[in-house]
Design a protein that fits this description.
heterodimer, A: about 270 residues, mainly alpha, Ferritin, 9 helices, globular, B: about 100 residues, alpha+beta, about 20% strand
């Protein structure tokens, strides 16, 4: 092999390495949004109130919109002929790159599997505060396409955070029962928030750099809601490399069943 | 939480007014249930401005509204029926004036 072609080879493999890193990062963002949307949409027709039903459905649709933009972009970066639908419907759980927080069921482990609105709100508070900070920072990142998606999403996530904040305050500082339930919910989801901030210096925005700002937002809400901020101990992880809780498999089973039974089905 | 008491039956009713765009008045668009004013405003945003119907929202506790009674309809409104001079029909409206 001539010196010149060796150099070209190395150059092109570096470029494909960069491309697969970018693909992974956009995929992470897209999978976070997609799985959060699917989990939230489980409340449709079952929320405590009609008004809250609409609010949660709106938030889920915002997330789904973000997921579509991000997964379409990821598919383009990959350049292997896959589409957003292929990424959403034809990957298995081990190929998903979402954080474990968004796949967690809306029930508490001690709750016998019944959905608990307090868990939804605790997850939404932690997740939307993270997403909002991340999209703010991505809004002026070097990747123009990603920045444009982030600028749209930053307004949406501001509202999600506002919604979660108002409910956390009302549940935390509400009745004895609502306080007990939302405290239990925050305690249960807190360990899963560590994964959001794992250092990744190859990402457009290193998630680790968001943790201080995230903590100051969330700790302020918890304090005002008369809730105790859980301690930092156990920190489950693995979502970014495809290791998930069993909850994701069930979620995907439901989300993908129609597409897998009727490939290419459209409305 | 669903099926556990359905607490929202005690949530008060709010009337919602939306201003479709600058220069127009807030109009009544409907009502909703919410535990307090702050959440009523957010619920109104989700229920009544999903399709960009407005630029401003008012929410008012339905209990704060004093309404005329259907029984009083005749005494309230009929006397105005034959007073054509109250209509400003004797003026020419200049061209290009909107929202009159």
């Amino acid at each position: 092999m001539s010196e010149r072609s060796e150099r070209t080879d190395r150059h092109s493999s570096e470029r494909s390495g960069v491309r697969s890193t970018r693909f992974e990062h956009v995929l992470q963002l897209g999978d976070d949004a997609l799985v959060a949307a699917q989990r939230l949409s489980e409340w449709v027709s079952r929320a405590p109130e009609l008004e809250e039903d609409m609010a949660l459905a709106n938030i889920a649709l915002d997330e789904l919109g973000q997921a579509r933009l991000l997964l379409s972009y990821a598919a383009e970066i990959e350049g292997a002929g896959r589409t957003e639908d292929d990424l959403a419907y034809l990957r298995t759980d081990r190929e998903f790159r979402n954080c474990q927080l968004v796949e967690l069921p809306d029930s508490r482990s001690a709750g016998g599997g019944a959905p608990d609105f307090a868990v939804t709100i605790a997850k939404l508070l932690c997740f939307s505060a993270y997403q909002h900070l991340l999209y703010q920072r991505l809004s002026d990142c070097g990747d123009e396409r990603l920045a444009a998606i982030a600028r749209k999403a930053v307004k949406e996530t501001a509202y999600h955070l506002d919604h979660a904040t108002l409910w956390t305050l009302r549940l935390g500082d509400g009745t004895e029962e609502s306080h007990r339930r939302v405290q239990a919910a925050v305690d249960e989801v807190w360990p899963y928030t560590h994964e959001l901030f794992e250092a990744d210096d190859r990402a457009e925005v290193d998630p680790a750099s968001l943790r201080d700002a995230w903590l100051s937002t969330v700790e302020k809400v918890l304090a005002e809601a008369t809730l105790t901020r859980p301690g930092d101990g156990w920190a489950p992880t693995g979502g970014r490399s495809g290791i998930h809780t069993e909850a994701l498999s069930y979620l995907l089973g439901e989300m993908q069943s129609l597409h897998r039974a009727h490939p290419g089905a459209t409305w | 939480m669903s099926g556990e008491g359905g607490g929202g039956q005690d949530w008060p009713l709010w009337e919602v007014f939306v201003r479709p765009r600058r220069g127009l008045n807030h109009s009544h668009v409907g009502s909703l249930h919410a535990p307090d004013a702050e959440l009523a405003l957010r619920n109104a945003r989700d229920l009544y401005t999903r399709r960009q119907e407005g630029v401003s929202i008012w929410v008012v506790p339905a209990s704060a509204i004093t309404a005329s009674s259907p029984d009083e309809k005749d005494a309230f409104f009929d006397p105005a029926g034959d007073k054509a001079y109250r209509h400003p029909t004797f003026y020419h409206v200049p061209e290009g004036v909107e929202h009159l």
